[in-house]
Every structure is written in structure tokens, then in C-alpha cells.
Amino acid sequence: MCKVVTHDPVEGVRVQLASGLSVAAPSCTELKTPRRCAEEKTMLRTAAALTHDLKRPRAIIYWVDMLAAAVIGYGALMFAASARTTPVVIAAGIVSVLALYRALSFIHEVSHIKHAALPGFRLIWNIVVGIPMLVPSFMYDGIHNLHHAKSRYGTKDDPEYLSLALMMPSTLLLFILVSAMAPVGVILRFAVLTPLSLLSKRLRLVAIERYSSLTINPSFRRRMPTGDARKLFMQLEAAASVWAIMLLAMVAYGTISLHGFIVGLIIGSSIALLNQVRTLTAHLWENEGEAMSLTAQYLDSVNVPPPTLLPMLWAPVGLRYHALHHLLPSLPYHALGEAHRRLTAALGVGSSYHKANHPGLFGLVSRITRKTRNSDQPR
């Protein structure tokens, strides 16, 4: 069973199982009422106790899922790039977008899993997906974990949070559209900025702090990793730079046709747009910057559980259970569905757990859009 192994008035309670799975609970002093405090502890203990047998990643699922998505995605990309009829290009392009989006989404798992549990997975993911798509794992590794830090979530120190629901309506449109430039941005980052930054310490600092992480908070500045993480950063950056330069050279010399290159850029932009829409619906974005209790963080996050099927496409690799992931970030993606079923059955209808469930994409976008319109009204 579970037990409380540490308690800190700032960081709160950490509930840990004999199996090693642990979840962080906030201090009761952070909550408004003793009843809410008790409810939160109940939800955390129930979540830990019911899912302790789900924490081990199943290697066969990771490898087959990631590699199959990559093979299908690249195959469809090549088919779309070589096709000459518009309907075929569009059909193959859609398949490529969805498959490569799924393959890329494993960067989220790479940032969470213990690499000893999946030997070689991070390396092969970078070789097969991260480097070719110019999104090496260092752009998320060491960054995403800050978003899960209890004291950072939803604050100015969270690299993956903006109070989008409290901003101008035009901000949402800009938030979505700017992502379409991602393919051009990563090519410039690795083909141009990387080699130039070797000539200037100031430019190198800019490259590391501002252009080496997947974030949405424009004020965030990353630090250069240290130790083995620094070595991996340098290796992956060099590999991505070489590939980006080779890619442009192959287009310039005609090895890759301009038509094929443009098709690839469009597919890359579509992937980035789809991911940005998914990001928009991963949270409610209603926090104004203050530190939040774990329950508040959970309720600001989103689950889009079955029976709706489309989230398998626009929120793949477990991302449809984003609120549950914030509650139990150590669970592998393939276990989240079963964990959700167990918690849904165990926790009463009045539990906060159910309040993070939403029916679908369009309802979430509509909710956030309405919030921005209301925040735009004079007070």
C-alpha cells in the first residue's frame, strides 16, 4: 500500500508506494478548506495505489509504435513528394502528417522515461525521428520537467505556460499561426545559427538560451546542460546542423527536387500547426501567474477520454490524458488509458478527478476563445 514518506510545508506531501511510484501532494496550508485538503489526499493516494502495477514501460509497445509511425510517415512523405496529382498529394500528405506527428510526439516520452528501462530508445528515436525532423531530444529534455515542477507550474518560471485564456482574442490566432513557421525556424536554427554561433560567444549564448528548447513562454531562458547532458546536447546539435546543411545542399544541387522540398515544408508546417492546436487544448490556461496547489494544476489541465475517437489522432501517445499525466507523470503512455478507467471507477462522481474530463477539441477551443473575449471586455 501507500505511505507518506516526506512532508514539507512548501513542497507538500509526497505519497510513495513500496513499488517506488511516487506522487507529490501539496501542503494542506495551500488549500482553502480542510475538506478540499482531504479530498486531494484521497485522490492522490487512490491514484498511487491503483496504478503501481502500471509504471513499467513495455519496450515492445514503444519500439513498434514509434518505428511503425516513422516508417509510415516517411513513406507517405516520399509518396506525396513524388506524386503529380493534387488529390494523391493531399491524401498522402495527410497520412504523413498524422504518422510523423505521432512519431515526433515520443519526444514527450523520451523526456520522462528512465532510459535504463528502455535501453537505446532515446538514441534510436533521435536517429530515426529527432535529427531528420530537426527536433532533437535536447529541445525538450531538461525543459519539460520544469513544467511539472510543483512550484513552477503556471508561473512566469514555467517554460510551457502562458495565461492564454486571459489574453486578447488575437493572441490565440497568433499563437496558432506562428507555429506554421516552425520548419523554416528549425532549418535556420541548425543550418545557420549553429555554425555562426561558434564564432561568437554572445551569439552562442543566444542560441542556447532562446533557440534550444520547445517552449511557449517567451521570457524563458534555458541554461546550458552540464556533465553527460551537455555532451549529448553538443552531439545532437552537431548532428542536426550537419543534416540541415546537407538538406539545403541537396535541394540546391537538385538531389531533392524543389517540389519535394516544398511538400516536405508544408507537411512539417501542418504537423506544427496540429501540435499547437493540441497544446492549446492541453490546459485551460486560466492561471494568472501565482503558484497553484496540485488540485488546481490538475483542474487547469485536460483529459479527453473515450468514447470520442479523434483524440487518438490529434493527441497521440497518451496526450489525450494530459491532466492524468500531470497527476502521475511517471506512468508510461500506454498505461494511461487503463489508469483512467481504474480511477474513474474508484473515485466518486463528485471527485475533482472527473472535473478535468472534456468531450472534445472543438468544445475546448470554444471555451478558451470565449474566455479571451470576456477578458477583453472593460471591467
UniProtKB/TrEMBL annotation:
Keywords: Membrane, Transmembrane, Transmembrane helix. The lineage of its organism: Bacteria, Pseudomonadati, Pseudomonadota, Alphaproteobacteria, Sphingomonadales. It comes from Sphingomonas ginsenosidivorax. CDD domains: Membrane-FADS-like. One of its GO terms (molecular function) is oxidoreductase activity, acting on paired donors, with oxidation of a pair of donors resulting in the reduction of molecular oxygen to two molecules of water. The keyword Membrane applies. Residues 91-348 form the Fatty acid desaturase domain. This is Fatty acid desaturase. The chain crosses the membrane at residues 60-81, 87-104, 116-135, 172-192. One of its GO terms (biological process) is lipid biosynthetic process. GO terms for cellular component: membrane.
